[in-house]
């Protein structure tokens, strides 16, 4: 078992080594892998921190993995080792046990056999001895009597008997009989020579001795035979015959003859003897022969047996089994061994050897071991079983057995080599162990590899997961920080914007202050510009953060895209002129006029793009192109169809030159619009095409110094464009500059049909001479005109213009004769009678004022030069913002009223063409080049449209558009009014349709009519001298003229330029006015026109003759073709009588118009609300529900200042009561209108103002809050059909509150603290419809 | 001379008040509303504000002294105070009220008490300033001068 314990520990050592190696290997690989990211760190400096963090994490994870691996491996090793050990141990124990028991049996058996033999030998010896004794006794008794006479006979007898016995037992060595008298008879057998001897002795003094022998001297000492003579006779071993002579031999020489001394006690004696002649010890037994009667011993019989046979047996056994055996006497003398070694010592006579002195070293050492181990203290039964005794260098089993014979105890020892019994077992055990160990090592190795593989997979996954977690962490942090950034920016810019707005507002006030010196004014203007720039930057940042944080919500409203873009181009063209850059708008005709979207954002997109382009373009042009996505748009065929239609209907619609192209769109249909902004600036490097759209990114950072900017513009643009479902890219461009292309996905208006007005000018066969400075705009315009069917020339400078003019007019002379040829060259258009109507005046010359030499006074000559063509062609002048007043005045003086501001784009061109065509018609009728009001009108129309655009786009353009100071200021004010008035309307879609149209129209009409009115006023003033009747109307209209007093300048101009003409041909002018009026009413919806016509219808019969009635009839029926009226107007011209009447009619019409105005009284009120000393809220009665006394007081005062009557109540309950009372009063009024006064008197203070026009409702009030109060009021109203506008006043500025307010039935929403302007405008917008 | 001096002082005081944001544009609007038809308007409104604010501040301190604070009630009071101060243009009182309300929403009693102290401070600041202003105004009027208009 000790070995079994040793081996596993020995086995553990290599395992441990293996582990150590594995560990080092793992460490190595880990080091390698952990080194790699560290190397990376060196490359990526900014990420260092992150990586460090990562590596530490990695390392710790490595360690944990490593520990896990180690633990698993150790456990595996222990498991396998245990299994091995247990298997081996149990196998071994069981095997050993069974084998040991077997071996013990074997050994015992082996030893038993020689002992049995010895026992047999002893027994047989005893038997023979006993037999000899019995025979001897018998013989002696037989010869008792004659004993004394003849002893020889006795001896002879004895000899025969003994011989018979001796020969029967061949194993016997000798039989001796020694008589009392000393006579000895013996037979001896020499086994080596196989001879048998008879030995006897002759008594010399027989006579002496005989007596003694007979007479009891039998017990004579043995030494007596010394006197005897010993003889030996050789006998035949079979027969016993004498074969040789007797020979005398020394006594006792051959054999040990048992003497009487040995049997003195009468018992058998045993002893081991040695003889001279044998190598092996002899066993001799002696028994006394007693006298049969006397019982005295008469002789002793001795039998000697050699123990050699025992040795032989042992040898045989050992030969078969291997090992050693020996028998010893109790004293330790070796009696028999299994070896051939001599048993006797020859040194001093033959003696027995001690086992410890034995020659054979195995036996000797075995005996020595036994003696060492036990000494003399053997166990009682003398049995010893020892295993694994090391003798020499082999292991042996030693077993000893004790055989307790009387007088001769024997000890048998067997020494069997361990190898013999357990050799195979040990061997097999060893190989098994080896196999087990190797197998377990194999298992361990495989297991370790498996663990490595598995854990490496796991560790990879863990590593990845750790990395992923850290990445996610980093991402979250980054997102959070960017979110913080956005929020911070949003908050900051909001905080900054508020004071900025205040600063700008205050500066505005300061600028309009009259008491500023020029220097101060300049400074303040400068400050204002800077503030605007700063505000713009802040707005940009806010926009960006808004878009980035996803808070930007795009508005969805219908707007006129074309108009917005035109305004934009107008605005930028002013900026560009200083830069020597053209700004061109090139929108394709198929673009829808009205789209749905966030107009402010779209304008912002283009503002950013264009201002960006302007920044980098020092000369050249900037083109804004726009077209429609061709795939879902096919207007061309329809267009041509419409052309045909319009041509067919030409007679009926000679005055209305617009054909309506109807495009059918699905509801909520989206349309993709494409735009391009092209410039000729420094361009962007292709590698930066993507990055310019990043925030704070500029194509060339050095430009910041020169051009400023933060690089936010394009980023905002891209964000906005993406938000609108489009894309923006920089596109490759031929030549210098940048080309940005973007698409926008915009909604179509909800009313499915879109009227896109396309003018049909083709039939007038106009020829246009474009004398424009800018090359690009000229070519684009001329191309467009050609598409529309005009013939165009182009001139870029004064010389070119004069050249073309000369050529053209020479040709023109020829044309009148050879017209068709030229026509075919331009475009074949069926023109019918329109040609002669134009009367040769079919050439339009558009002249850029910058073509004139303005630096000197040459322009005057140039104008005079152009003047010679006036009769032959129409002139349209392109003014720029810096055109001096002198030129304008001069132009007007010369009768050029068709003036427009730069830049020229299609809408303006269309307007010019309209004007020309219309003028042409009048010219046809009147046949002279008199002043025509329509021309003026057009002129002003274009002017006014300009200014509207200007201001509608951005209110801070006023600094850019430094128009003729005061004039422009007034214009700005005017348009602001316009806007404030229009805004609330556009926010109320519930407004009834017709009203909406009319209210929207009216202000527009007013703009258009404004000059017209002035003219008419003038006319009336003039006419009033002749017709006193009209004085009254004139007075009314004078009132209007006062209201529009700020147009004084214009008016004066008008007067100066037209007074002369007017004085002479009043009637005509009046006719013209009338026509103009009719024409102006064209855009009005039918209802108004009908009203107007009916009015005429009602009035006319009393004033005019039948012819006139007829004429009016015609006028009424042919509203769409007022051309007829003109034709008739021509007739009218013939009689002065009629003209007077017509003049009166004109005045009546003006009155009508006046009434028409009064219908829209509120608009007028709203319009003039900012005019000081007016009570915009005059006549309104307002119920104010407000619990806070301060606010109540403040609001009351505010409203009263504006002219309203205010009833204040403290809570919602009172408000509801007040409304109830009012409704009751209404009911009463309705029921008994006759007793109205009585009822009114009976009512309480509250009910004095029986009708509230509006309720201002605080949202948070005691008893009944604003929401509940509103709900109650709306419930009360439910049956009556009334609707009192309720305006919420709340301190909550959240949009959710607004939604809540609107939800409960409130009409509008004001935040505290109340802004009086906002409040007034809100109230007006709500109360207007009650009128 | 005296009038001019008073007027200058008035202008200075107004400027400081506006600079410190004790009052804002709302007050300017109120000043514009005061004319011949309502000569005592400002005084009227301001004293209304004083009454209201003092009442509310009392209520607030009472409400916050309670063991269990009724935050809804406190919130309503603060809201009223906010409305009042906003209408008079007491900017800083209003700002503190806004913060106060957010505290109320969180049911943060300590914060509320802290804010109440702030509101008190701001209120007394406004009050003293307004009283000075009104006194000055009265003096100017008494000495026959006109109140300089603020832009």
Largest sheet entry of chain A: 8 strands, antiparallel
pLDDT < 50 stretches of chain B: none
The chain pair forming the largest interface, with residue counts per chain, is: A-B, 21 and 26 residues
* Shape by Cα distribution of chain A: rod-shaped
Q: Bin the helical content of chain B.
A: over 70%
CATH topology tier name of chain B = Four Helix Bundle (Hemerythrin (Met), subunit A)
InterPro entries (chain B): AHP1-5/YPD1, HPT_dom_sf, Sig_transdc_His_kin_Hpt_dom
Keywords (chain B): Cytokinin signaling pathway, Cytoplasm, Nucleus, Phosphoprotein, Two-component regulatory system
Pfam families (chain B): Hpt
Subcellular location (chain B): Cytoplasm, Cytosol; Nucleus
Written description of the protein model:
The complex is a heterodimer of chains A (1331) and B (151). Chain A has 38 helices and 34 strands. With 1331 residues, chain A is an alpha/beta fold. In chain A, helix 21 crosses helix 22. With 151 residues, chain B is mainly alpha-helical. Chain B is built from six helices and no strands. The longest helix of chain B has 34 residues. The model of chain B has no long low-confidence stretch (mean pLDDT 83). Chains A and B meet through helix 7 and helix 32 of A and helix 2, helix 3 and helix 4 of B. Chain A: InterPro entries: CheY-like_superfamily, HATPase_C_sf, HATPase_dom, His_kinase_dom, HisK_dim/P_dom, HisK_dim/P_sf, Sensor_HK_Regulatory, Sig_transdc_His_kin-like_C.
């Amino acid at each position: 078992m000790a070995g079994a314990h040793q081996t596993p520990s020995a086995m553990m050592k290599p395992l441990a080594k293996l582990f150590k190696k594995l560990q080092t290997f793992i460490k190595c690989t880990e080091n390698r892998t952990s080194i790699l990211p560290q190397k990376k760190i060196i490359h990526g400096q900014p990420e260092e921190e992150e990586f460090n963090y990562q590596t530490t994490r990695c390392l710790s994870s490595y360690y944990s993995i490593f520990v896990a691996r180690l633990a698993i491996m150790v456990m595996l090793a222990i498991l396998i080792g245990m299994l091995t050990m247990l298997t081996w141990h149990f196998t071994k124990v069981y095997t050993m046990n069974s084998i040991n028991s077997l071996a013990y049996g074997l050994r015992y058996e082996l030893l038993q056999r020689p002992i049995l033999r010895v026992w047999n030998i002893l027994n047989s010896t005893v038997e023979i001895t006993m037999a000899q004794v019995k025979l001897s006794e018998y013989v002696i008794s037989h010869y008792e009597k004659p004993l004394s006479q003849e002893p020889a006979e006795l001896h002879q007898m004895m000899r025969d008997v003994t011989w018979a016995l001796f020969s029967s037992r061949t194993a016997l060595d000798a039989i001796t009989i020694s008589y009392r008298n000393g006579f000895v008879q013996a037979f001896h057998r020499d086994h080596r020579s196989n001879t048998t001897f008879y030995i006897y002795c002759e008594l010399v003094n027989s006579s002496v001795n005989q007596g003694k022998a007979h007479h009891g001297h039998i017990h004579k000492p043995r030494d007596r035979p010394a006197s005897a003579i010993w003889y030996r006779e050789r006998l035949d071993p079979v027969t016993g015959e004498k074969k040789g002579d007797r020979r005398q031999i020394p006594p006792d020489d051959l054999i040990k003859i048992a003497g009487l001394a040995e049997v003195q006690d009468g018992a058998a004696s045993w002893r081991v003897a040695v003889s001279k002649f044998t190598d092996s010890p002899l066993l001799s037994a002696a028994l006394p022969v007693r006298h049969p009667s006397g019982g005295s011993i008469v002789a002793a019989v001795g039998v000697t047996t050699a123990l050699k046979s025992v040795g032989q047996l042992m040898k045989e056994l050992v030969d078969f089994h291997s090992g050693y055996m020996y028998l010893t006497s109790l004293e330790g003398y070796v009696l028999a061994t299994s070896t051939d070694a001599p048993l006797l010592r020859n040194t001093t006579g033959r003696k027995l050897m001690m086992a410890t002195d034995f020659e054979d070293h195995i036996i000797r050492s075995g005996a020595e071991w036994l003696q060492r181990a036990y000494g003399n203290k053997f166990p009682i039964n003398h049995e010893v079983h020892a295993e694994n005794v090391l003798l020499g260098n082999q292991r042996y089993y030693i077993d000893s057995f004790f055989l307790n014979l009387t007088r001769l105890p024997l000890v048998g020892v067997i020494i069997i080599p361990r190898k013999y019994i357990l050799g195979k077992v040990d061997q097999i055990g060893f190989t098994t162990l080896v196999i087990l160990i190797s197998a377990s090592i194999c298992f361990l190795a495989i297991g370790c590899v498996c663990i490595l593989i598995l854990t490496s997979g796991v560790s990879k996954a863990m590593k990845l997961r750790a990395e992923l977690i850290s990445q996610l962490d980093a991402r979250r942090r980054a997102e959070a920080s960017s979110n913080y950034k956005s929020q911070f920016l949003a908050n900051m810019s909001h905080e900054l914007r508020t004071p900025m707005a205040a600063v700008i507002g205050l500066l505005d006030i300061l600028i309009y202050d009259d008491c500023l010196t020029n220097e101060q004014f300049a400074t303040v203007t400068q400050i204002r510009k800077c503030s605007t720039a700063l505000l713009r930057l802040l707005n940009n940042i806010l926009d960006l953060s808004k878009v980035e944080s996803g808070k930007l919500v795009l508005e969805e409203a219908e707007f006129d895209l074309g108009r917005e873009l035109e305004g934009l181009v107008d605005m930028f063209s002013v900026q560009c002129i200083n830069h020597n850059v053209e700004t061109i708008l090139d929108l394709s005709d198929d673009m829808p006029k009205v789209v749905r979207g966030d107009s402010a954002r779209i304008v912002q997109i283009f503002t950013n793009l264009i201002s960006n382009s302007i920044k980098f373009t020092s000369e050249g042009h900037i083109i804004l192109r726009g077209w429609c996505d061709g795939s879902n748009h096919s207007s061309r065929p329809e267009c041509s169809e419409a052309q045909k239609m319009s041509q067919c209907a030409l007679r009926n619609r000679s005055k209305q030159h617009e054909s309506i192209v109807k495009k059918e769109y699905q509801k909520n249909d989206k349309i993709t619009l494409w735009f391009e902004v092209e410039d000729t600036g420094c361009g962007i490097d292709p590698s930066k095409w993507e990055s310019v759209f990043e925030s704070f990114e500029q194509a060339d950072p050095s430009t910041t110094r020169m051009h400023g900017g933060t690089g936010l513009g394009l980023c905002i643009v891209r964000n906005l464009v993406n938000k609108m479902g489009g894309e923006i890219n920089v596109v490759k461009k031929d030549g210098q500059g940048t080309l940005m292309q973007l698409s926008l996905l915009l909604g179509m208006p909800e009313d499915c049909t879109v009227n896109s007005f396309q003018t049909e000018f083709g039939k007038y066969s106009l020829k246009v001479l474009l004398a424009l400075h800018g090359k690009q705009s000229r070519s684009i315009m001329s191309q467009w005109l050609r598409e529309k069917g005009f013939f165009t020339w182009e001139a870029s400078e004064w010389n070119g213009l004069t050249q073309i003019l000369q050529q053209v007019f020479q040709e023109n002379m020829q044309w009148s004769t050879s017209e068709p040829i030229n026509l075919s060259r331009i475009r074949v258009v069926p023109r019918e009678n329109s040609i002669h109507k134009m009367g040769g005046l079919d050439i339009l010359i558009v002249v850029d004022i910058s073509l004139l030499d303005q630096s000197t006074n040459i322009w005057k000559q140039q104008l005079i030069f152009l003047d010679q063509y006036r009769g032959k062609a129409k002139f349209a002048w392109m003014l720029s913002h810096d055109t001096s007043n002198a030129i304008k005045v001069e132009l007007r003086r010369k009768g050029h009223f068709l003036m427009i501001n730069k830049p020229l784009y299609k809408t303006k061109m269309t307007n010019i063409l309209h004007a020309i065509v219309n003028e042409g018609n009048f010219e046809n009728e009147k046949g002279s080049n008199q002043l025509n009001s329509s021309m003026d009108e057009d002129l002003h129309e274009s002017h006014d449209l300009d200014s509207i655009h200007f201001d509608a786009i951005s209110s801070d353009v006023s600094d850019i558009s430094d128009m003729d100071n005061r004039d422009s200021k007034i214009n700005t004010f005017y348009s602001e009014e316009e806007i404030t008035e229009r805004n609330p309307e556009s926010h109320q879609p519930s407004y009834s349709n017709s009203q909406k149209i009319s209210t929207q129209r009216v202000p527009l009409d007013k703009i258009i009519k404004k000059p017209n009115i002035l003219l008419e006023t003038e006319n009336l003033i003039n006419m009033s001298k002749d017709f006193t009747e009209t004085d009254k109307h004139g007075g009314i209209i004078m009132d209007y003229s006062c209201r529009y007093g700020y147009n004084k300048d214009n008016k004066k101009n008008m007067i100066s330029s037209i007074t002369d003409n007017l004085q002479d041909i009043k009637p005509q002018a009046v006719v013209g006015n009338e026509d103009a009026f009719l024409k102006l009413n064209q855009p009005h919806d039918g209802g108004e026109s009908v009203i107007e016509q009916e009015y005429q219808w009602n009035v006319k019969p009393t004033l005019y003759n039948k012819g006139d009635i007829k004429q009016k009839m015609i006028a009424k029926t042919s509203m769409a073709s007022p051309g007829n009226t003109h034709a008739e107007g021509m007739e009218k011209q013939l009689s002065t009588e009629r003209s007077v009447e017509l003049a009166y009619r004109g005045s009546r019409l003006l009155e009508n118009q006046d009434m028409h105005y009064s219908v829209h009284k509120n608009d007028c009120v709203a319009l003039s609300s900012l005019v000081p000393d007016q009570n915009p809220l005059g006549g309104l009665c307002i119920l104010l529900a407000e619990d806070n006394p301060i606010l109540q007081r403040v609001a009351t005062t505010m409203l009263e200042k504006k002219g309203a009557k205010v009833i204040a109540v403290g809570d919602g309950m009172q408000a509801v009561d007040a409304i109830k009372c009012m409704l009751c009063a209404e009911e009463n009024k309705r029921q008994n209108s006759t007793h109205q006064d009585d009822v009114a008197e009976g009512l309480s203070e509250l009910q004095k103002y029986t009708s509230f026009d509006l309720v201002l409702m605080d949202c948070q009030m005691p008893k009944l809050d604003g929401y509940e109060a509103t709900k109650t009021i709306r419930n009360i109203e439910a049956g009556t059909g009334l609707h009192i506008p309720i305006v919420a006043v709340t301190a909550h500025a959240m949009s959710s509150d607004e939604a809540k307010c609107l939800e409960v039935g409130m009409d509008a929403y004001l935040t505290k603290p109340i802004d009086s302007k906002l409040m007034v405008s809100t109230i007006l917008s709500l109360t207007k419809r009650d009128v | 001379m005296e009038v001019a001096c008073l007027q200058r002082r008035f202008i200075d005081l107004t400027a400081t008040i506006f600079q410190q944001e004790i009052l804002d544009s709302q007050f300017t609007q109120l000043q514009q509303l005061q004319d011949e038809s309502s000569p005592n308007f400002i005084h009227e409104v301001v004293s209304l504000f004083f009454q209201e604010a003092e009442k509310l501040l009392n209520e607030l301190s009472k409400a916050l002294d309670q063991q269990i604070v009724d935050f809804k009630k406190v919130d309503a009071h603060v809201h009223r105070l906010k409305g009042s101060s906003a209408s008079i243009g007491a900017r800083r009182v209003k700002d503190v009220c806004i913060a106060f309300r957010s505290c109320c929403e969180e049911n943060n009693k300590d914060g509320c008490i802290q804010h109440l102290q702030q509101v008190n401070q701001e209120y007394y600041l406004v009050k003293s300033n307004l009283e000075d202003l009104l006194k000055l105004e009265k003096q100017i009027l008494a000495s026959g001068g006109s109140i300089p208009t603020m832009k």
